Sequence to fold (302 residues):
Amino acid sequence: MKFWKKCIIALLLLIVIFVVYVLLNVRSLTVETVSEDIHVIRGMGGNTTVLNTDAGAVVIDSMTFKIQGSLIREKAEELTGKEVVLLVNTHYHLDHTHGNPGFKPGTQIVSTERTLSHLKALDADNWQGDAAKLLPNDTFTDRRQFKFGNKTITLIHPGRGHTDGDLVVLFEEDKTLVMGDLFFNQHYPNIDLEAGGSVQAWPATIDKVLELGFDTVIPGHGDTTNRAGLVGFQRMMKQLAEIGSLAASNTTPLSDTLNSSALTEDAGYQPIKFGGISLGLNREFVLQRSWEESTGNFELKN
Ligand SMILES: [Zn+2]
Fold:
């Protein structure tokens, strides 16, 4: 067999292995019981949270693929024994929203105004045809409260950080906070400057969240933790913001900033992996984003 034929066969085999690997990973979901009424579902994408209420299941975020959305909806119904009455999208990124089409058309789907605007402007291709029926259909700007039977659910946009439209969810009676991607626990965060995200604003945004009444914290990525875990992440973001500010005032080149030893609060942090594949969310990435924001080397997209 000719060399190039062998190469093509090897390439095709690799593609098949990759597709099978992704398909297997996409369908695999694990469930963590946080309390009797709260479960976290993990899979390829951001964390999904399910709250059991007297009136039905409340689901926060829907992961990356339609099939995951369907499996999450089924899992939520199985865990609570009830239909899904509310789906919340914490922000517009695909690993938290692209599962929406797996839910039933007509489901109440809540996000902030900014998140809906980002979905339509920055992710328009995904939301054509039938998928558009599963876009958020109930939006707010700063604060929104729902009562479902025995549970009070407060949604708050605490400020800029990961994007300019993230919301956090407080389960009042359970003193549990769902942070979405305003909190990557022990992982380097994505910082979406182009969608209004900000390293500089992030620590004050967390200050606003810390005023709320909660003990348990569910991050957008990483393990469930508590107030101390969130405060530790805030310390890391503060250091990162200071490094950016200093680089701007001293006109430090990016290459020097990437080698900065001033970032110490990231001890033990790991880059996020998506089905075993690293997404490049590492120490260099967050240092670069901080430098880009402080020196104005980026462009808003919406
Ligand atoms: Zn995100």
Observations:
- The radius of gyration is 20 Å.
- The CA atoms of residues 119 and 125 lie 9 Å apart.
